[in-house]
Amino acid sequence: MQVEAFREADRVHILAIAEAGDQALDLDAELARGCARIWVARNATNGPVLAFLLAWDVADELHIMNVATDARHRRQGAAKALLGVALDHARSTSARLVLLEVRRSNRPALELYRGHGFSAIGLRRGYYADNSEDAVEMMLAFDPNTGAVLPGHDEIPLPRSS
Asked: Using CB atoms within 10 A of its CB, is residue 50 exposed (0-12), middle (13-18) or buried (19+)?
């Protein structure tokens, strides 16, 4: 899996992935933000975009705003590769925390984030407007001296995968 920064030629692919996933994405507004970072994943150089990750660099934190994968390419490592690049970016900019929200029902995403060291730190009840689903707030902290992921613990109960 190849991950690289957004290029203008990726626009149509990112918007199609977001739309297919019923995700509202104002790409022009995001690109206008000085803090926005967008990465895309592809199988090969100049291949089609399989997934994208949008994050905001805010002070000493990285906020992951959106991760979406083309439905035909899920479970092939694109989101994992994107998350790895985003975490490397966070370390390189001396971010202290990485934060995100994820649908409580999105077990594959919860597993992905937990696999990278994220902990569930809170619950936003009725967060998603389309169906009032709860959002799980997740956090990953880095050791400021080494960049290593600091161990965390879930502050809210979530079902574990079997």
From this structure: buried
| Number of residues in the chain | 162
- Predicted local distance difference test score (pLDDT) of residue 132: 86
Which pLDDT tens digit goes with each residue over 111-120? 999 999 999 9
Alpha helices (H) along 8-77? 11-20, 27-32
CA atoms within 13 A on the CB side of 154: 12
Structure tokens that stand for 8 in this block: 């203008």
- Count of alpha carbons within 13 Å of 98, Cβ hemisphere only? 31
φ, ψ (nearest 5 deg) of residue 3: -120, 135
